[in-house]
C-alpha cells in the first residue's frame, strides 16, 4: 500500500482586537516557505511588526526572525517565551539576533501587542 502524502498545513490567523495572532505550522525546517505563504496575509493586513516566540529559539525562531528581517519587517523576539535545547544555545541564538540587528529582544511582561 502506498503511503498517503500529508497535506501541507497552512498558517492559521485569528484576530483579537487590533492584533492578529498567527499559528505557524510545523514546516520541516524551511521557514522561508512558511513566510512565503504568510506574505499575502501580512500584506493584506498591512503588518509591519512581527512578535515571535516559541520552541527552537536556535532553529525555527532564529530562521523566521532572519527571514522576516530580510523582508523588511520589524521583528521582536520574546526572550522569556522562547526556548532551545539548552539555555546556552538559546542565549547564543537570541544574542546573535540582537547583535546582528535582525530582531529586538523583549520580555513577555513588557510586550505590547
Could you walk me through the main structural features you see in this protein, from its secondary elements to its overall organization?
By secondary structure, the protein is of the alpha/beta class. The protein has one domain (12-110): Isochorismatase-like (Rossmann fold, 3-Layer(aba) Sandwich). It contains three helices and five strands; from the N terminus they run E-E-H-E-H-E-H-E. A three-stranded parallel sheet has the order 3-4-5, with helices on one face. The longest helix is centred in the first third of the chain and has 14 residues, at 31-44. The chain is globular. The model has no long low-confidence stretch (mean pLDDT 81).
Q: Could you tell me the strand content as a percent range?
A: 25-35%
CATH architecture: 3-Layer(aba) Sandwich
DSSP helix fraction: 25-40%
Oligomeric form of this entry? single chain
Give me the number of helical elements. 3
- The name of the CATH topology is Rossmann fold
The whole-number mean of residue pLDDT values reads 81
Amino acid at each position: 500500500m502506498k503511503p498517503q502524502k500529508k497535506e501541507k498545513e497552512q498558517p492559521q490567523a485569528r484576530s483579537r482586537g487590533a492584533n492578529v495572532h498567527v499559528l505557524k505550522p510545523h514546516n520541516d525546517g524551511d521557514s522561508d516557505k512558511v513566510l512565503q505563504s504568510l506574505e499575502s496575509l501580512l500584506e493584506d493586513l498591512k503588518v509591519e511588526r512581527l512578535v515571535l516566540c516559541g520552541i527552537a529559539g536556535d532553529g525555527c525562531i532564529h530562521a523566521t526572525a532572519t527571514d522576516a528581517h530580510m523582508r523588511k519587517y520589524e521583528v521582536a523576539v520574546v526572550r522569556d517565551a522562547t526556548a532551545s535545547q539548552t539555555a546556552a544555545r538559546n542565549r547564543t541564538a537570541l544574542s546573535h539576533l540582537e547583535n546582528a540587528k535582525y530582531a529586538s529582544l523583549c520580555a513577555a511582561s513588557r510586550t505590547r501587542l
